[in-house]
């Protein structure tokens, strides 16, 4: 796993369909360019707030400054950076202390650009865990262990 300013996500991966969205992130399917598309990954993009992000869901406040929930732009950026840093630190701690483990997704690589930080992760199939839990009224201990 490495992070270098000169490397770009688009050099190594073809970014495809959206798999999911969160408050500060979006997850897309990615296909490796190095092995003729045999390796598929999940690419989680943690977005940055700030001048580069105007027009991406942020409202214009008074005096034309972008605002979100009444917070000044400098606070939005610092909150965003703190959440971004926390997400990366949590993932790094998991990778260093637990991985490889069959129940923990692997972090393959990290890229950074003006839009945010892109975490290249192992692609997991099977849909959302939350949807599976809600879809059934009860789980036996045996069934829960298989999820």
UniProtKB/TrEMBL annotation:
List, in alphabetical order, the Gene Ontology terms for molecular function in this entry: ATP binding; protein serine/threonine kinase activity
* SUPFAM superfamilies (alphabetical): Protein kinase-like (PK-like)
Task: Could you list this entry's UniProt keywords, alphabetically sorted.
Answer: ATP-binding, Kinase, Nucleotide-binding, Serine/threonine-protein kinase, Transferase
Q: Kindly give the PANTHER family that the UniProt entry links to this protein.
A: SERINE/THREONINE-PROTEIN KINASE (PTHR24349)
The species this protein was found in: Aegilops tauschii subsp. strangulata (Goatgrass)
Where the record annotates domain Protein kinase, the positions are 13-147
What domain of life does the UniProt record list for this protein's source? Eukaryota
Q: What is this protein called?
A: Protein kinase domain-containing protein
The entry's ATP-binding residues are 44
